[in-house]
Specification:
The chain has 246 residues and is α/β, with parallel strands linked by helices. The chain is built from seven helices and five strands. The chain has a five-stranded parallel β-sheet with strand order 3-2-1-4-5, with helices on both faces.
């Protein structure tokens, strides 16, 4: 049974003048929503950041808006960028079919066609600019090296490299107050992430994972993201609230 508690506005009791702020990348899926829950439990203020980058559907953006409201974020910024017009991915063009798997084995070594070129590099760059402008201390991103579908920009090595870039690229860092990138899910699989989210009160019925939902918004159940989601809930022993078309 999926039991969730409503989160409080601020988990961390702190003086407003010394309040820490985080920019949290929020796509509306399991990982980013859990990441927001963790950030909300660790810092005083959260700014959620979502991108309209040319996805095939806007359901995940609607989910992100619901999650942002659920966790009472300080601000939810939705940024439109035209990435989908210029890069080819199954997530941004109807010309490339979203692959569907008949088994739970999605551990292939090839980078899948659902990879969006440089997506996390672009997202983190925006987050870094917003964090510096807002005086934020941290950027939270829900990447994982365990259940990551083979995307190269979800690996710890990539995050470490971007942290080095951030330490060189910003006025704050040069003046001794760098923005720190936090990846609390880096070494967690989907089941562990779900268990952590349940502890922190995430309502997973608000989230969306499917790459190829039908016209009613129901998840396909067979893309890589759906398979990882279903398997995660099953292993975690938690009821999956997702509506699947089949």
């Amino acid at each position: 049974m999926n039991v969730h508690k409503m989160p409080s506005r601020n988990y961390k009791d702190t003086d407003e003048a010394n309040a820490e702020t985080a920019v949290v990348l929020l796509s509306g899926g399991i990982d980013s929503s859990t990441c927001l829950a963790i950030a909300s439990s660790e810092v005083h203020k959260c700014i959620a950041l979502t991108f309209q980058y040319g996805q095939r559907h806007k359901i995940e953006i609607n989910a992100a808006e619901k999650i942002a409201r659920y966790f009472y974020v300080e601000k939810h910024i939705v940024i439109p960028i035209h990435l989908g017009r210029h890069v080819e991915s199954a997530l941004t063009t109807e010309c490339i079919e979203v692959p569907k798997n008949d088994t739970d084995d999605i551990s292939g070594t090839d980078i899948p066609v659902t990879y969006v070129p440089a997506r996390n590099t672009i997202f983190l760059s925006y987050a870094l600019a917003i964090a510096e402008n807002a005086g934020a201390d941290y950027i939270y991103i829900g990447v994982s090296s365990v259940d990551y579908s083979g995307y190269p920009d979800c690996r710890a090595e990539f995050i470490e490299a971007f942290q080095r870039l951030a330490d060189l690229a910003t006025k704050r860092a040069v003046e001794g107050c760098p923005v720190t990138i936090r990846t609390p899910l880096q070494h967690l699989d989907k089941a562990q992430t779900i268990k952590k989210g349940i502890e922190l009160g995430v309502d997973y019925s608000l989230t969306h994972s499917c790459y190829d939902p039908d016209e009613f918004g129901r998840a396909c159940g067979h893309c890589d993201s759906c398979i990882l989601r279903r398997k995660g809930f099953e292993i975690a022993g938690v009821s999956d609230p997702t509506m699947y078309s089949r």
